[in-house]
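Inverse folding, one chain.
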């Protein structure tokens, strides 16, 4: 039985929303929804709530079937060379999750799905997530139902955001997507919105999507279904 195809995009802001809009239209023509990895704040003082144009697009895309995934609070490294949420104790993680959750609620983008910047979470973060109502933890190698504790495997294949972004790697991404789809597994593609401005990156993701579709993968988004862990798309 063929697996699913999940495409996620991070790094969404006023600087990248236009290129993301163009990319999304190309995926829409292929019947592919997006999983949108959203952070309330980013570096250099950027706040999503103060960016009405990007907010409008995100809400619109969600209404069309895209999924919103919380992708950290402000991308700040809490320890030298460690991404946000990679080394936090439970109390610290709890405070950041509360702030991020409230921020998304104010702008009508609240979600029960979480993916950490760099795809790495500390044990303290794992404890704090379900306490704050989150139900799905999306990781680099698996996604975990935070109520049942059941994990669904599936290697993330990405460009940027902790993954290589050179042209040689873009070719590898297409090969990995084709190989994964051919054996009936779920293809999980991840790309940063900033990288979509590069022609080779954009073509690589679209080629990987077409390869997965060619092997019968069903388009999907990250989601949590309370009935069973089998409903986790990952």
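Residues assigned per position:
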């Amino acid at each position: 039985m063929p697996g699913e195809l999940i495409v996620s995009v991070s790094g969404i802001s006023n600087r990248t929303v236009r290129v993301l809009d163009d990319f999304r239209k190309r995926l829409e023509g292929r019947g592919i929804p997006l999983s949108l990895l959203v952070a309330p704040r980013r570096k250099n003082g950027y706040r999503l709530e103060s960016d009405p144009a990007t907010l409008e697009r995100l809400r619109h895309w969600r209404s069309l079937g895209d999924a919103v995934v919380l992708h950290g609070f402000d991308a700040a490294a809490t320890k030298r060379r460690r991404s946000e949420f990679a080394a936090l104790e439970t109390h610290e993680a709890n405070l950041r999750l509360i702030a991020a959750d409230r921020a998304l609620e104010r702008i009508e983008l609240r979600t029960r799905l979480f993916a950490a910047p760099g795809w790495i979470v500390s044990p303290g973060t794992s404890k704090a997530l379900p306490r704050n109502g989150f139900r799905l933890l999306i990781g680099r190698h698996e996604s975990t139902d935070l109520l049942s504790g059941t994990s669904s495997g599936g290697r993330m294949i990405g460009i940027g955001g902790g993954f290589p972004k050179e042209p040689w790697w873009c070719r590898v991404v297409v090969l990995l997507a084709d190989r994964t789809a051919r054996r009936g597994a779920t293809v999980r593609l991840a790309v940063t919105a900033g990288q979509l401005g590069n022609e080779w990156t954009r073509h690589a993701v679209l080629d990987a999507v077409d390869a997965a579709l060619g092997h019968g993968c069903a388009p999907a988004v990250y989601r949590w279904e309370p009935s069973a862990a089998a409903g986790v798309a990952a």
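Helices lie at 17-28, 52-63, 90-106, 123-131, 167-182, 199-214. The CA atoms of residues 112 and 134 lie 4 Å apart.
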